[in-house]
Structures
1.
Amino acid sequence: MVKHQRNHSAADRPGPSPSQRYAAFQKRQAHNASVAARFAATLPFDLDDFQQDAIDALERGENVLVAAPTGAGKTVVADFAMYLARERNVKAFYTTPIKALSNQKYHDLTAVYGANRVGLLTGDISINSEADIVVMTTEVLRNMLYEHSTTLNALRFVILDEVHYLADRFRGPVWEEVIIHLPRQVSVIGLSATVSNVEDFSSWISSVRGDTKLVVSERRPVPLEQHVLVQADDHTEPELLDLYRRDAQGEQTTKLNARLIDRLDQLDRQAARRRGAENSRSRGRGHSRGHVPAQRHTPKRWAVVDELNYLDMLPGIYFIFSRNGCDQAVEQCINAGLELTTEDEMRRIRAIVDEMVAGQLSQEDLKALQFSRFRFALEEGFASHHAGMVALFRQIVERLFEEGLVKMVFATETLALGINMPARCVIVEKLEKFNGSGHVPLTPGEFTQLTGRAGRRGIDTIGHAIVVDHRDFVPATAAALSSKRVYPLHSSFHATFNMAVNLLNTSDYETTRATLDHSFAQWEANESAWQLESQLTTLKQALNGYEQAFHCEYGDFASLMRIRMELSDLEKNGRRKLKQTAFPTDEQRKNTFRELDQSIETLKKRDREHPCRQCPDMQQHMKWGHRWIREMREYERVQHRYESRTGSVARQFDRICSILEQLGYVKRDGTDMRLSEQGQLLRHIYSEQDIVLAEALERGMFDHLTARQLAAVLSALVFEARGGTGGEPCSSI
């Protein structure tokens, strides 16, 4: 008999049981009574799922790592941490990588909580340092931890904004020091860009700080489109072309725009013809510069701004990797006669500028800073923004841009580091920058950080990222940078002399070594070491197999192979290495070469007299022996890599301590080390050149210098990187 199946409607299906309804009711009641619910009620918008997950974890007492694109709303999680600190009557610190971001965050928070409840600590500013909420640069917090500052009392929450900054080769180690050394009762809130190995980073934080909730959101609140701006010559209008082809719905795909490629080819041919004509004229006049490759015309900065204004794509941020270049761009726009503001906007700009400057600087200072020119440019809608400006001028630019009055800001990459200045479009002048030692290509992470400013949430439906055509530009490069939304985060942590003495001041030698073993650098090294360990196991199995194959009753055949390996190395590389070695005297060089020859002869003798030479199966064993040697060389190579990774940070610390002991900064006390008076001095020198400064002070090299001479000498020892890494001087004496 066939049983008829009945299709139940939603109304027919049984609802939740009374116990299930009661459990759901209790859950709703608990949430409504939570601090998270009260915080959410203060917001003018509903929380996204990732924001809700993060703040729930914070209320449970967990550490939180939030990875999301620029503008996605990571700051809401930080806002809740500070709200929670206020509710529990404890302290919260908000750390940033640069002073400009610290200043902006301080002003934002004073508007919410009042000036009496918020403090600011940077390298040169101290305001209300004992407040419930203190904004500071990350270096300041690191220094406080080493000094055991009383300001740390009642601290329970630390927000590390732009925590992915720990990959920075100059200042990144500071973030790891803070994460490692913060007291365990402090909850860490890390706000990061989207990185491909965020799970690894989260696992490391969990290993050093306990339960850590990882929250990831890859959704941009405002979609981003990629463009390239080209120009045939100064007599034609610039052209804005899509980097990617569009589909039937008009959305950009991941395939390069054929029209862009064709147009660039056309401009290349025009440039070649133009160069050919110039070369002909030069030869006609009897001059020749040799072969000069043709280059497409690079659009003028003012022409780029004028075109984007015509296309209604402002306000915009124009990234130029030079402070001087930013200032020049403003002058170029003014000299070209561009105006981006209305009469009403000009009046509002003038009023805000006068209000912010009043009582802050003397007339002499304003004149020296060319204030009248600065204000005139603002009234026309232009400004530069970089670390070389006085802080007040940067704050004026930030406020006017946020209020939509300044329409174009020419900035170094400092502006991309978390400062709340979203724009409709972002222009990148070149896909390379000077990093302090040479010109290097932008990384996908840097490009994402820059272009992430494009698209204002709640205002723009689309953000625009624009690369200006420039020397050696090819669309594939821009595509590679823009398509790779995430990038790996790698530690730049390394032990320093200052770090060593500060750690030894608070812990014994072995505890300090164990602490360094907890760094993200060592964690990454250990991860790769596990893979090497697996390779070693495989290689060892192969070696064992070969040793069984050439087992010899006359003796240890493996020992014969080791003799032949060593002999081969000395004969092939021994003399070459010695020739590359500098010897104090000619006699010592001759003696060393003589010892090498003796070692070679000794090995040859051992080879000839080895008992396995008598074995009738010698030739067959030797075939397996050659394979054994090949595998043994690979085994030793992998073994060396494995040993260099395991405990590598602690070994670096050992070497530093050895130097400190030789120079008298530490004294050995059994198995421990104690700081000398010199070591106590070194503790307070935070600099790339810490040991150089300490030695100079110890030897009295600065004692007879005038104030000006001292400033000149120290300027050579105080590193300030360009652009994004330049927010905080690395020296503090």
Note: The longest strand covers residues 155-161.
2.
Amino acid sequence: MAVQGAFAKASIQFGVPTTSLRQRYPLPFCPKKKKPLTTYFKELENVLHKHSLMDKPQHIYNVDEKGLQTEHSPPFVVGCRETTTPAITSARTATTTVIGCGNALGAQIPPYFVFKGERMREELLEGRTPGAEGTVTPTGWSNREVPIWTSNPSSLRLQ
């Protein structure tokens, strides 16, 4: 602590600015209530025993979706070096949703993309991972009408 104070004192004495030009970053999602990890893992163990999955990691899957905003560029701000400067993002930017799925052994199913648009164009999937598919919605978010690969489990191929 004394060393930090010495640097601050020296910066004032020699006229070194204590601010810098920084770029804002989006606020992270923080849940309001955090469930204790011990309770979570006890309940997980109960579910695994109930469904006889303790020795079958190939049958345990996790599906998640991530919304990517492609048009967000936060402004620069002037602030102290030690502080962070969060930015509030606008809901008006285009969003692309990526839906991924993998099992407890580490095998994954190719991703599924949901683009913002009126009709699906093949160019949207150029350079994709082999097996990846996609569709479009007016918002770019997934909804009940999005025919993701989980609707046809027999067509899934783990990679």
Note: The helical segments are 2-14, 37-50.
3.
Amino acid sequence: MQCSHSNSNQVIKFSATLPTQCHSYQLDTGADISIANLDHWKKIGQPPLQLSKTIASLSVWGGRSLQIEGECTVKVSYNGKTLQLPLTIVHGSGTAICGRNWLKSLQIDLNAHIYGKSAPLNPKMPTIGTVKSTYSRQKLDDILNQFPELFSPGLGHCSKIKASLHLRPDAQPRFFKPRPIPFARQQLTNEELQRNVDLKIIEKIDYNPRGFAAPMVVVPKPNNKVRICGDFKVTINPQIDVDEHPIPTVDELFLKLNGGEKFTKLDLADAYLQIELEEESKNLVVINTPLGLFRYNCMPFSISSAPAIFQRVMDELLAGIPFCAAYLDDIIITGRTEEEHLNTLKMVLTRLKEFGFKCHKEKCDFFRDKVTYVGHVISKDGKRPDPKRVEPLLQIPNPTCICRMPWSNPMLNPAASHYRSLQGLVPWSDLRHRTVVRRSWSLQGTGRSKAYDTFTMSKHFWGKSTTTIASFLATPTSVRRSTS
């Protein structure tokens, strides 16, 4: 049977396939299950009845019991999905009831049905933080409802720009055979290949041993699925002119957020794949699989120029919009007031719609007091390192010999930004660069004590420090010119 909304209040109509008639089910959020009488059961084709394994008795409001005839399974289609749902058949008369089990499974929008205004019921929709005023919360909902296509399923398609890859003059085609795939992942890999073909991310091409072909790489994902990509480091990556568009630094990103109170984070779904390749570039990104050769129609993740190309698109997209920044596919938005935040959000969503992008709704956050962004936790008070990334660094043991120092040194560079002077890092640097036999020399003398102090202080700053965003602008810089 197929399900559609009716015009009558609190009623949903189902048009059964056998016979082809419309049957009314009354919405009842107080009913645990969906029920119908024997007359209705006969009208929908008398599907086989069986004893219910979970329902011992039924009673209506007031305590009156209902005699259960049995339970059947019916095929219900609603809003693009088809499900097999249980329907309990009882003796008596009255309208068939659509209970909470069907409401939940079909994800029926009660707001749209009762009030005539749609509201997302999906628990995985973007989370919205606390908005102080009812007016601002309502305005935020109104803005999001203006852009339903941005969070709809499917792959976005950038309509403004196409990516182009440029080979060096001395480039030579390289063709590699497919790599074997573990038996346990073959079915998942074939399904993922077909999904990519259906989305027009890739397309099958004829065998050409004189062209480019990179071996396919299968990467397992946490959701028991796989991601496919090409090992382009053995084919075109060493032979293309890499795009040199600058990727913004952390300080450059946070400088744009100065004065922000709350923060919104947008994540683009399959970001790079939303940008189409120029026709001449498509034949350069070919993957060799056990099912044959496939070429990418969209920009794959593993191309060395992909980050710079995508960052250029993001910079063009956000040009002229205040209080927002983008690091590749992660966009962050803020404002000094709620009204300013909402206006910026609307401008960004409008640009995304114009460009044809789509967002990953499960990874978006709206109006949050703090968000995690590029390895930092950002709030109105400033930024600090993400505790999840800091914890492994805090567990690094103090080095006992010079040979272990290179493993510990990377943690010092970020911590240096919290020092009033870099002078405290000098003893550690001296120990690393002395012309001695490093592999056998132990840390000794006063140099050892200063180096250990530096190491301990760096751990402390990693775990406890916060750099206020406004501090980047707080200290004026004066430039003096000599007249001599």
Note: The chain is about 30% helix and 20% strand.
